Amino acid sequence: MTSSSRPTSATAFRAVPPTADVVIVGGGVMGASIAFHLAEAGVRDIVVVERGELACGSSGKPIGGVRAHFSDPLNIELGSRSLRAFRDFPRRPGADIRLDTVGYLFLLTEERQEAQFAESVRLQNSMGVPSRMIDAGEARRLCPYLSTDGLLAAVHSPTDGHARPGLVVHGYADAAERAGTRFATHTRVTGMDTTGDRVSAVHTDRGTIACSAVICAAGAWSAQIGAMAGLSLPVRPVRRQLAFTERLSPPAPRIPFTIDFTSSAYFHNSDDGLLFGLADPDQPDGFDTTWTPEWLALFRDVVRRRAPALARMPTADGWAGLYEVTPDHNALIGRSGELPGFLYATGFSGHGFLQAPAVGEIVRDLYLEREPCLDIAPMSADRFLSGSATRPEAHVV
To answer: Over the stretch 270-313, which tens digit does the pLDDT of each residue have?
Structure first.
């Protein structure tokens, strides 16, 4: 089955299946990873409900970074475990995801940043991540576009890189479907029924699915899905935009995934050109995914100081998607204490793609009531209700 034709079962649905053991809400990279890991473990009666096409939300990003470079130990573990899974993806589940291990390059222009990143590098090194602090000259050798004016230092993580989210989603989904998972695309969740402390049904615009468990992997829409079950999932949607250059001649050199940390401007190779990205600090919350060419002016103003040649490059196209942001920029992963049949993996604040393989394993184990490979108790959504300590992640892009 090819990605362009799949999933045949989903396109054939006029009504959703009447029953399932577990309903996964969301057909992005998180929902697909969870479905694959559950199906691989022998769970057969799975229905994935997706409001659009698979990978049509945040996972529709043309190229996604993969890294273990974080400041929080749990995020480092999630990233490292996922990187191993991405490298193994051609074997399990069996798909080419165009993984390119070009490394990450964080550019630092403030002494405070340099101190923070140096501390993170020590932590990462102690956990087996071969990141290192480098000077401005070496940063420019790695990325010839850079101006070193005002650049104090940089951090290079050589084992990081980028891959294609759409290929990852379809690789997981194809394997899950071969194992019996059913995908209901173009299907919206409209409500849920609970009986006692259990989820008993999911209502959609194509019918009702009686079930005993729900897994919310709905990304930016997760707050609404949680509310249907009477639960708080503090996730807000924020638009992020990017652009592609026209074909470059001569071709661009192979460069790391390069990030000016102060501004959040980033760029890296993309087929026959470069991809540009930047988080607009004034972007309001909302579900609008319209790409606005005016956004380019903001990117060019920033990058003119750090990589002047990029500011002059003509662009050919753009893309806009949604980040799913939590108050501390860390994910929500766990099982509801109030409603044990409701599990969730959402709010990744831009890190969902790169953490999806590890999170799929963890949610599988939570569903099967097994001990997960990592202690994800600190990621519980209850941390915002109980007064527990939050875990702010410093290396957010």
So the answer is: 999 999 999 999 999 999 999 998 899 999 999 999 999 999 99
Helix or strand or coil: residue 240?
Answer: strand
Choose among 28, 24, 29: nearest CA to 49.
24
Q: For the segment 138-166, what is each residue's pLDDT rounded down to a tens digit? A: 999 999 999 999 999 999 999 999 999 99
pTM, two decimal places: 0.95
How remote is the C-alpha of 139 from its chain's centroid? 27
The token pair that represents 115 in the structure block:
């101190």
Tens of pLDDT, residues 319-359: 999 999 999 999 999 999 999 999 999 999 999 999 999 99
What is the β-pairing status of strands 257-260 and 104-108?
Answer: parallel
Peptide bond into 250 cis (omega under 30): yes
Nearest to 340 by CA among 197, 179, 228: 197
- DSSP character at residue 55: T
Element (H, E) at 9: helix 8-12
Helices (H) and strands (E) in the chain, counts: 11, 19
Q: How far lies 30's CA from each of 44, 198, 224, in Å?
A: 18, 23, 17
And the tokens for 240?
């992020």
- Of the candidates 225, 168, 209, the one whose C-alpha atom is nearest the C-alpha of residue 15 is 209
d(CA 80, CA 185): 31
**Pick from 211, 197, 203, 210: which is nearest to 228 by CA?**
203
For residue 154, what are the β-bridge partners? 107, 134
CA distances from 253 to 131, 153, 259, 268, 293 (A): 22, 22, 16, 10, 26
List of residues 6+ apart from 360 with CB closer than 8 A: 30, 33, 34, 36, 37, 172
- 293 or 34, higher pLDDT: 34
Q: Is the pLDDT of residue 24 over 70?
A: yes
Report the alpha-carbon distance of residue 197 to residue 192 in Å, rounded.
13
